[in-house]
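Person: Please comment on this record:
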Amino acid sequence: MWQKVYNLIRNKYFLSLAGNVIMSGFGLITMTLIYRSLSKSDAGTWVFFQSILLLIDTFRSGFLTTAFIKFYAGATKERTAEVAGSAWFLGIAVTGILSLISIFSFFFLNNIHDEGLVLFFKWSGLYYAFSLPWFLATCVIQGEQQFDKLLYVRLSNQGSFIVFIILLIIIGKINLPNVLFAYLTSNLITSIYVLLKGWTRITALKQRTTNSIKEMYNFGKYSVGTALSANMFSTSDTFIINFMLGKPALAIYNLGQTLMQLVEIPLRSFAVTAMPELAAAYNQNNRHGVIQIMKKYAGMLSVWLIPAALIGCALADLPIYIIGGGKYAGTEAANVFRLFLTFAIIFPPDRFFALTLDVIHQPKINFYKVLVMLTVNIGSDFLGVYITHNVYGIAFATILPILTGTIIGYWALNKYSNFSFWNIFKVGYLETIALLRQIKGRKAFNS
């Protein structure tokens, strides 16, 4: 029995899911502490600052992560050293540019009147520098499929931040600047940790090659589109709410949206584990296999989200109260959460269409798709605010860019291999039934 438990814990799928669950769980705990300790205005400022910070960081993570894993996984020892060194070179270059922007912004800070923007331009350079080693360590770890180490990195990063927040609350020093310093410190601690553990492969920097750098750059400049698609739209929502409806409205909207991390957990976990399968099928020139794997993962997640969405809609007020406290009870936050849950069923097809396009060497389509989706999102957001004058307009508008991206992704993949969109849900249902029967059979066997 204990051997079975050990094998389950060491399973890469379990470790991937556990890492995402812990990361999202810690994120919710952190948001609970911050929302309950800061005013709506300060909470909104923190949300705005982090949204900009992570959006810009997506250019680095989206540029390097997929390209790194693609060229690193399964390669020879010499090739992995080449890729790791080239990734460090590109990572330092991108981080250097971002840090220089932060430094030069000091000359213009007096002309910026939004506190969230001031925090970003003033402190983003330090964040990008502090987080670079642990970010590249996660690339190496994913490339080697050592998900237990990935879990340790996430525990170090999120765990230390939560500890600092709790300490600030205990000593009565919880405020926006101190939350920021705690965030920077947790990133620095995590980077020191992975450097000491030797997980970054920073010593491979001297083994970089011009050809490998060009190869990663040419792939990454388009694959960044897939990563941007995951948060570009929420960030544009954040900007529009911040400047048109104010910081308190942003805090309310973000609280409802934050709970969608419960949907992002399986999406991220399945994406990490599906990518090697998709790549293997593509490398074997098995077009039907690529599409079947995509339909399996996207379909199962969509089917699973239906009962989850129904339960979430019924109980939406409870998590809003638990995380935000009494000052958010009766606000639009719970209904925003309900609206996002209603749309969630089409999230998996959109996400896995994008992932599959990257795998079949069509990152350029994802890049252009994101630009179209962003245009649709911004236009529908302005229209939604104009009509409703509240955050409901933004929440309703979310469905339009997701539908747009899904349609474009479906069209592009059909040119690669023809398939029916609705068959995704049929495959997902059949795979779910098969999984349940397999679990039931194991229980009967064990009894």
Notes: The chain has a mean pLDDT of 85. Residues 223 and 274 are 17 Å apart (CA to CA). The chain has 18 helices and no strands.
